[in-house]
Design goal:
Blueprint (H helix, E strand, L loop, with lengths): L13 H13 L2 E6 L24 H4 L2 H6 L1 H17 L4 H15 L3 E6 L5 H5 L4 E3 L2 E8 L5 E3 L18 E5 L8 H13 L2 E5 L11 H7 L3 E5 L12 E3 L3 H4 L5
Parallel strand pairs: 1-2, 1-7, 2-3, 7-8, 8-9
Antiparallel strand pairs: 4-5, 4-6
The protein binds ligand BV8 and zinc ion (ZN).
Length: about 260
Amino acid sequence: MLGSMGRVQRGPATDVVASLREALDAASSIAALTGAGVSAESGIPTFRGADGLWRQYSAEKLATPEAFERDPQLVWEWYDWRRTLIRKAQPNPGHVALAELEERKTSQGGAFTLVTQNVDSLHDRAGSRKIVKLHGDIWLVRCVTCGRVERNDQVPLASLPPHCRCGALQRPEVVWFGEALPSLAWERAMEASCRAQVFLVIGTSARVYPAAGLAQVARQAGARVAVVNPEPTELEGLADWALRGPSGEILPRLL
Ligand code: BV8
Ligand code: ZN
């Protein structure tokens, strides 16, 4: 049923899902922005949900260069804890559905770009190919001195904090608050958002910028926007479809 504005359609009712599925089938270019909520059903706590705190610290307190400068050990204990959770986690049906959507769209000669804020690599493990990682990758580390980037899969970390072969400290290769996003990733995210006819916003509180601004970019370039989230978000006002519920249940219904 259409809302009063005739635009926003509530809840994952079958007609809403069917209408979005039709738009996805017809679209030649689709972009999706995901956040921590898409990994919630894989057992990974979100940043701002009830289970989002670690030793009572919020992400804003730990995911900063200042926190790392002040106490690299503490910041690495947080990442080691998250890496341990992520290693045990499996991609859920929401991750898998996004990989299938990409496969289907590209096999029809269309485009599907998955832009993620997540650093947990569950989209890679679910089979997504065209992934733009806006905030980095928890399995990569970077030397604070010589800049060398390498993969570190140790769970738990053998030594906390890890050190580079040059002897200097290594940090997680992720984007902290106050740090610029990788320019190539940002360019690819902007390009995909401007080209999309349908822009999916999945499992994000849409509070962190510039990532959260991509929905507006897509809309201004003519896309229709679908939001998949059990809760209302800051993007409610610009959603053409608001599918209220967990992505692990809703996304497979879009196939
Ligand atoms: C930058 C990576 C400048 C590391 C992260 C004031 C106004 C506007 C902006 C700012 C401001 N003050 C400061 C800023 C800038 C700041 C910002 O936006 N702050 C916010 C807090 C206001 N942004 C930055 O600093 C960015 N950099 O601006 O640089 C610059 C430019 C040039 C040169 C130099 C500097 C960098 C931001 C990146 C920070 N890094 N993480 C790591 O992961 O450890 S942020 C972290 O939180 C995540 O990466 C993610 O991006 C972000 C948001 O989290 P979400 O993914 O949305 O998760 P959240 O818990 O919030 O929400 C989960 C959602 O899932 C909920 O809605 C929930 O309902 C839903 N959900 C739950 N279960 C399910 C579900 N959905 C579906 N299914 C379910 N089952
Ligand atoms: Zn080094």
